[in-house]
Amino acid sequence: MKNCYIYRLLILTSVVWLFALLSAFAQSVRGHVTDATTGADLPGVSILVQGRNTGAVTDANGLYTLTLEPGSYTLQASFVGYTTQTLPVQVTTGTTATVDIRLVESLASLNEVVVIGSRSTQARSSTQTVAPVDVIQSRELVATGQVDISQQLNFVAPSFNSSRQTVSDGTDHIDPATLRGLGPDQVLVLLNGKRRHNQALININGTIGRGSVGTDLNAIPSSAIERVEVLRDGASSQYGSDAIAGVINLRLKEQPGTTVNAQLGQQYEGDGQVAQVGINHGFKLGQKGILSLTGEFRHRGATNRAGDYTGPVYVNWNVGQQSGESAAAYVARRQSLYQQDQALIRQNNFNLSDNLQVGNARVDNAGFFLNARVPIKGSNASFYATGGLNYRRGLAGGFYRYPYQTTQVITAIYPNGFLPNIQSTINDQSLLVGVNGETNGWRWDISNVYGGNSFRFDVTNSNNASLAYLGPVNNPTSFYAGTLSFYQNTADISAAKDFGKQMGLTSFNVAAGVTYRNDQYRIKQGEAASYLNFSPQSGQAGGAQVFPGYQPANAINAHRQVYGAYLDLESDVTERLLLNAAGRYEYYSDFGGNVAGKLAARYRFSEAFSLRGSVSNGFRAPSLHQRYFSAISTVFVSTGTGLEPRQTGTFRNDSPIAQAFGVPSLGAERSTNFSVGITSRPLSNVSLTVDAYQINIRDRIIYSNQFSRGTSGAGLIVATILNNAGQTDVNSAQFFANAVNTQTRGLDVVIATNSRLATGTLDVTLAANFNQTKVVGDIKRPANIPQDATFGNFLFNRQDSARLTVAQPRSKIQLTFNYRLSKFGAVLRVSRFGTVESYDPANPALDQSFSPRMVTDLNVSYRIQKNLTLTVGANNLFDVYPDPLKVTNYPTPERYGTAALDNSSFGRFVYGRTATQFGFNGGYYFANLSASF
């Protein structure tokens, strides 16, 4: 199947090249377009002839040519991030006119025309829309010093949050990304305005976005991106399911010429080396066509910020008091065991500082993208296509298996224990083809996009402890654990027309469309040795340690169809009042239909002040992953004295076990969104937007806590259900369920200005997001499991609640200074990440609040030659780290009898991994070389 996509891309490329060979044009007008401040060439500038269906695009050197009959014309030069200019030109017979153009940068991103959030033909800037939109240019992304798109956005968009995870299985390799403090699956991602497929991985670990399925943004090369538009408003009625928090639209480059970007860097600590090379080349196809090709390679080395381990290694001294044992005898026994363990540690020279990897996983990523648009001769239509292939290989460590853990370690192979690794292979592919144009005033678009993502798990440096009887020679240490995959095909037909003139209005745009989507989710089982217990009576754990493989019972190939239709109306009712109304109906073959609607308005009191607001309802359909994922895995549970491994089963929501627990079938999450804001231009070079919002979500889907076995109360009910289902080796069960309601309130603020400073230009942007999420109402508990004081709330405990409400920064404020003077440039960014918190499942004394932190990024650039720029800089310039984890009295024998408060898992974790602000890798310095031809 994968080869089929490659063949399609090759055929598409061949067709586009054929267009190029058949196209030719003469020269009547020529010119050179440059930056008015720096004099740099501007490739990709659109040069249009007003009143005529002709134009050109500047090449890599900022040059353009046009063919025009003799006469008088007006040229319009426009480029994203610059003020549009119009210039007259007189073309006479037998001569070539020369019109050079110097473009002036516009006010930050607030004046840039946006595509997302409106289907109107009226060009609107982000201060003129009915909903808040951030426009982030590629140069702003590159200036962050980050090399992948999720981290670039994290440092330029305050409402966006993405922090890398550690010791979290597959989530180490795909960064969860959120908007406005909600979940990764509550933001819709578009690529060139079309729905982007989700990732195959579902996050079932204790990190941000637990239980959710996001979109792998890093599968798109940052070198291919021209700009990113972030719609910060509920948009389910406009774009469909998932758009509860908003929409992120990535626009790919469409300009001629070649750009090359290369970066080398590493953390201050000397690890985490980064090497990135991205090449983009745009070919002109005739007068207006374009083919843009991008190839990018990224290497990210692993980082490690683990602390020194203080727990048991060879002898388990962390034992409980035996029945009838006196306190003094218990202390003496623990101390004796502890001394034995310490003696063996010294004897075997065991390294207590190097038995866990807490930091970034190692990742190698290679991607290729194409983006093409070709006018169809003899019509007002164009053919367009976007395709991409991305390959990623990752390596991350799990929890160390110590030799005292004899049920998990074959000591004949690993006498000193072992650190098992998860090796990921992630493939991502997509192909979009479409035709759009205009007929009798109707702008129409027909497209189809097919995309997919697969995640293969391999486990290395591990063992299946139940195979100990085979001996060290014949025992496998590497395992294929299975593959997750998700594929999606979406077909769209849309049309829009402005009836404003007929109605005596400035505009009255009517847009409508229909869509069909087919989703497919698959789980492929791993090899037998990755999941089987070959000696159940021995007490040894079965399956590959760190990640037991998917079993035959977990394998599935699920499909669903989605049908949708929408209507979108937008009108400038008066010169001051803009109204928008949208409605959408979608029907899902696996659970039914949903209706979403939206009303929005903007009223312009003056050129300097406008008021805007919206009210909408939305929905998010349960993903196929949430409906059909199942697995038996080893989960480490915090007990207050460390992390204990437990075999837990995730059972499908429609399984007999789930029904025995009384878990209802999954339904859609439903939301209501309210927002009100102002846009203002108090001065000609100052813009301001302030938007307040409230998002209520009902029936939010969560991944439950563990329903654990016990000998009484609810625990006995759990044990009975599992035993009756033949799951005698499973300690606990987990499910997906519509369990909680939440309310999120927040405020977005963006202030931007640009001015002349000395002989240069200074852009200043202050952007901030403040938000708070809380759980409201009662938790919807399974019908057949009563509350039990011994086992607490199985479904949704206080730790789960904290993950939704306080584990992401409650505020993020970013102040950016961008100064350009001749060949020099400098970017200074100060980011303040607000408080985050983590809660213990049962012991409030272990709760922790992590104080706000300020992170400073600085880079300086110099244009060595006309098309060659060197940038050097540092992210987290002052090497700031978050608050360390709370550690009060390690539970060692020397401190037995005192209060033991330890969030660090015997010192292994210095910084929190479940509640993160900006990571804990410290400072990073880099050098970047960019060139254009």
Summarize the structure.
The protein is mainly β and 933 residues long.
Strand residue content: over 45%
Helix fraction by DSSP (H/I, runs of at least 4): 10-25%
- Would you identify the regions where 5 or more consecutive residues have pLDDT less than 50? 1-27
Could you tell me how far the N terminus lies from the C terminus, measured between alpha carbons in angstroms? 37 Å
- Tally of alpha and pi helices: 11
Q: How many beta-strand elements?
A: 45
Helical/strand content category: mainly beta
Write down the Rg: 29 Å
Sheet bearing the most strands, described? 22 strands, antiparallel, barrel
Arithmetic mean of pLDDT: 87
Structure, described:
The structure is a single chain. The chain contains 11 helices and 45 strands. Helix content is 10%, strand content 45%. β37 and β38 (824-833) form a beta hairpin. The two termini are 37 Å apart. By secondary structure, it is mainly beta.
Question: Helix and strand layout, with pairings?
Answer:
Layout: H1 2-22, E1 29-35, E2 46-49, E3 55-57, E4 63-66, E5 71-78, E6 85-91, E7 97-98, E8 101-103, E9 133-137, H2 138-142, H3 149-154, E10 160-161, E11 178-179, E12 187-191, E13 194-195, E14 225-231, H4 236-239, E15 246-252, E16 257-267, E17 274-285, E18 289-300, H5 327-347, E19 362-376, E20 381-397, E21 421-439, E22 442-460, H6 471-474, E23 479-498, H7 500-503, E24 507-524, E25 556-572, E26 577-588, E27 592-606, E28 609-620, H8 624-628, E29 631-638, E30 643-650, H9 656-661, E31 669-683, E32 686-703, E33 707-708, H10 713-724, E34 732-734, E35 736-757, E36 760-776, H11 798-805, E37 811-821, E38 824-833, E39 836-838, E40 848-850, E41 853-865, E42 868-875, E43 887-888, E44 901-902, E45 924-932
Parallel strand pairs: 1-7, 1-8, 12-15, 30-34
Antiparallel strand pairs: 1-4, 2-3, 2-5, 5-6, 9-14, 10-11, 12-13, 14-15, 16-17, 16-45, 17-18, 18-19, 19-20, 20-21, 21-22, 22-23, 23-24, 24-25, 25-26, 26-27, 27-28, 28-31, 29-30, 31-32, 32-35, 33-34, 35-36, 36-37, 37-38, 38-41, 39-40, 41-42, 42-45, 43-44
